[in-house]
Amino acid sequence: MTFHTTAPDFGSTVFARWRAEAGEDWHAYTRHAFVRGLGDGSLPQANFLHYLVQDYIFLFHFARAWALAVVKADNIAEARLAASIVDGLVNHEMSLHVDICGKAGIAEEALLQAEEERENLAYTRYVIDAGLSGDFLDVVAALAPCVFGYGEIGAALAAEAAPDATYRQWIDTYAGEEYHDMCRQVGALVDAAVEARLGPDPQSSPRWAMISRRFQAATRLEVGFWDMGLRG
Ligand SMILES: Cc1ncc(CN)c(N)n1
Questions:
Q1: A GO molecular function for this record (predicted)?
Q2: N or C, fewer C-beta in 10 Å, the chain?
Q3: Mean pLDDT calculated for residue range 172-191
Q4: What's the domain count of the chain?
């Protein structure tokens, strides 16, 4: 995997800036060995399934954090989009996990009972804390690397992986129009939310560095999640 595609910014200038400020951490997340193994099929199936089981739990808590974005929303547009993401996570994205694990003989009840790995605990509780202790910008900045990073990874892998690649179902989910449309909606939400709270020149606000740091912290937690997946 050489990742020739230009990284998409999903129409969001704020995301493009956060990603640039995350620098090497963003690269470590989106070009991780686990990601390369998904693309070329060299990732052992046991590691993939272990990751999927953990990710099922991750998505449950991640949905709880998006629900906190509904709580912290300032207007109906923010509340509607955050609520639709909660719905997308629990009623759609998690189906991928249930389907692939089911085919491998792991029932949904077993997914719910799996013990959380420490990297999973650290990441999910970080985003929930951002939602509990912070405002709307704190929580969306902490949630953003998850949304945009998988969109970027999906697009890069779809462009380079073989049509019959081992992990094609996973790749197609995150390269698909439905997921990318959601990324663009979150991109528009983030830009509007930042402008409404920090003005047209947000980087001159003292809060900018704080929310950009939240994005960077969550990006490093994504790297930890892939490390956990490789450890198996
Ligand atoms: C850990 C993690 N990060 C992001 C995604 C994409 N929603 C995910 N499924 N899992």
A1: thiaminase activity
A2: C
A3: 97
A4: 1
